[in-house]
Amino acid sequence: MRPFLRIDEHLTLHLARHELAEAVFRAVDENREYLRPWLPWVDDTKSVDDTKTYIRESMQHNSEGTRLTTFLLRGEEVVGSIGVVHFSKDHRKCEIGYWLSENLQGQGMMTSTCACFIDHLFRTKDLNRVEILVATNNNRSRALPPRLGFQSEGILRQALLIYQKYHDIELFSLLRSDWQSAK
Ligand SMILES: CC(C)(COP(=O)(O)OP(=O)(O)OC[C@H]1O[C@@H](n2cnc3c(N)ncnc32)[C@H](O)[C@@H]1OP(=O)(O)O)[C@@H](O)C(=O)NCCC(=O)NCCS
Fold first, then answer.
1. How many structural domains is the chain composed of?
2. Distance 112 CA to ligand 1 centre (A)
3. What would the pLDDT profile of 90-129 be if each residue is shown by its tens digit?
4. pLDDT, position 177
């Protein structure tokens, strides 16, 4: 299947599709303990049927243009995901989210994946602003937006509730003008 985007020689992004369900579930299942502190849906992903439901809903959102869910593959293996979790067409902005398998951290893979994905968004969508929201104690994720030229706009207090615990979140943004001047 042709990739949605090619990141490099080994990594490709693929739009959500039914055939990926088993591989996506495997990646989540193998990384359960590491993903769950930051991603509220992990505990609800108990079986491949849950992932099939998620993929079906994602395909629906992708076709309606209300979200854009893609999975990161290294060869045939699913090793992460990046997507637009919310589009605000009225304000020409969107929010993106991502995760990567634990054993591939620390190599810049998600930074290069985000860079490609954001580049695609600005090139193909009528967007003025991309946002990333990160729990302030999620140190690895918090390091990512500044690497991509995002600016920090402040802290939203107790804006995220995961497993009955509130987290402060930091709001980062990249404007189309920032993206253009960095090219
Ligand atoms: C957030 C997450 C994707 C970050 O993964 P990551 O591997 O740290 O991020 P990157 O792939 O961009 O890699 C950056 C690391 O690679 C290193 N690196 C090596 N080569 C690099 C390159 N060419 N470019 C950028 N970084 C590079 C960086 O120094 C950094 O390592 P360090 O933190 O040890 O200094 C990952 O920790 C994750 O999935 N966490 C769980 C889910 C989650 O929190 N999602 C986000 C919710 S907001």
1. 1
2. 10
3. 999 999 999 999 999 999 999 999 999 999 999 999 999 9
4. 98
Residue minimizing CA distance to atom 1 of ligand 1: 141
> What pLDDT is attached to residue 72?
98
Buried b (16+ CB within 10 A) or exposed e, 105-130: eeeebbeebbbbbbeebbeebebebb
Q: Residue 72 is part of a domain; what is its CATH number?
A: 3.40.630.30
Q: Whose CA is nearest to atom 30 of ligand 1?
A: 106
Kindly give the distance from the C-alpha atom of residue 147 to the centroid of ligand 1, in angstroms, as a whole number: 10
Contacts 24+ apart (CB under 8 A), 63-68: 68/15, 68/121
Range(s) of the domain holding residue 130: 5-182
pLDDT in tens, 137-164: 999 999 999 999 999 999 999 999 998 9
Compute, in angstroms, the gap from residue 179 CA to the centroid of ligand 1: 20
Q: DSSP characters for 128-156?
A: SEEEEEEETT-HHHHHHHHHTT-EEEEEE
The type of residue at 153 is E
Does the reported pTM lie above 0.85? yes
